[in-house]
Amino acid sequence: MARETIVQITDDLDGSKGAEEVSFAYQGVEYRIDLGKKNKAALEKLLKPYTDAGTKVTRRTAGGRQTPKTAASKRDLATVRDWAKTQGIEVSDRGRVAKSVLAQYDAAH
Fold first, then answer.
1. Has residue 10 got a pLDDT over 60?
2. What is the CATH classification number for the domain harbouring 101?
3. Which domain CATH number covers 23?
4. How many domains does the chain have?
5. Is residue 61 part of a domain?
6. Do residue 79 and residue 51 come from a single domain?
7. 48-99 per-position pLDDT tens digit
8. Is residue 48 part of a domain?
9. Which helix (H) or strand (E) holds 83?
10. Three-state DSSP class for 31?
11. Is the pLDDT of residue 5 over 70?
12. CA end-to-end span of the chain, whole Å?
């Protein structure tokens, strides 16, 4: 026995047939809504002045995720090392600076 399943997407606003999923974000919240041609065109018309003036932001995939730059990551480690040495704190000339030394530097500045 053969079976055929038909999925029909209807507009979430007016119930019209032949809708498609539309995604958008506002204030950090993502939304999805099923809209027919008429309501999709109305949404696009409404958003056009804002999308034209705004900057498009692309998302990064989990594999391409980068750590956001923080004030701590922008520190000049040579300056931290010089400060530590003047404070009598033992610090290497190369490699990583210990977190405890960075914390002391941050607290002093």
1. yes
2. 4.10.320
3. 3.30.60.230
4. 2
5. no
6. no
7. 999 999 988 887 666 555 555 565 566 788 999 999 999 999 988 888 889 8
8. yes
9. helix 77-86
10. strand
11. yes
12. 77
Helix (H, G, I), strand (E, B) or coil at 80: helix
44 secondary structure, DSSP code: H
Whole-number Å distance between alpha carbons of 9 and 15: 9
* Interacting residues of 89 by C-beta distance below 8 A, sequence separation 6+: 101, 104
Residue 45 has pLDDT above 70, yes or no: yes
Whether 10 and 30 have beta carbons less than 8 Å apart is answered as: no
Question: What percentage of the chain has pLDDT greater than the value 70?
Answer: 86
Residue 1 placed within a domain? no
Residues in contact with 3: Cβ distance below 8 Å, sequence separation at least 6, in sequence order: none
Torsions phi, psi for 52 (to 5 deg): -65, -40
Tell me, yes or no, whether 104 lies in a domain.
Answer: yes
Claim to verify: residue 52 and residue 11 sit in the same structural domain = yes
